[in-house]
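Many introductory courses stop at the sequence. We go one step further.
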Amino acid sequence: MDTEAQPTERDRSSHPDSPGAEGRSRFALVERLAAWLPGGRITFTLFACLASLLLVNTFVAQPFQIPSGSMEPGLRIGDRVLVNKLAYRFGGQPRRGDVIVFDGTGYFGDADYVKRVAGVGGDHVVCCDTKGRIEVNGRPVDETSFLHSGDSASSVPFDVAVPAGRLFVLGDHRDDSSDSRDHLGSPGGGMIPVGDVIGRADWIVWPYDHWTRLTRPSAYARVPAPAEGSHG
């Protein structure tokens, strides 16, 4: 005769390792924390929301206010862009035409900057050709879709080879932009380390009437890959 006692439904539901017990335990912990805080659940909810925003701001996306007119007409002074901090986190690399925000400490100045990528590691970037355009790897780039009206591609001639792991960046308002051209003789030659890139500016989110998605211009689509052995 089997004399082993059989567990009842009550036995199973009250077991400390059951999923229901775990859920109730977590809920009880939240209730205790809420009761401990002044304002109870409302304060706890606010703290939870703030913590979530902090995590998003640190690891996922961050707002950035445009401080100057160097990226006009696309980005105006006071515009707020949403910077995608995951764009280059999992093997992705900045591409020609991307609008990036980067830490300029030691290269441009002790601040964050927003510029457009004109050349990536291995590229040969020259200005200007007989029609006043920049050339990347021998291919002229038509910048009229984003270059500030009345500006030339550059009033400063340059001929640079971008080292591996670096970026050559330019402002869209060339006559009002301090960018890689102005630091060619500085340490690093005005080239930004990819590791100092905070993220890619994907959206203008404020003001509301300027809300738009920032897309990579087609001007760079036909630029060929760097020649073999040019990765520096």
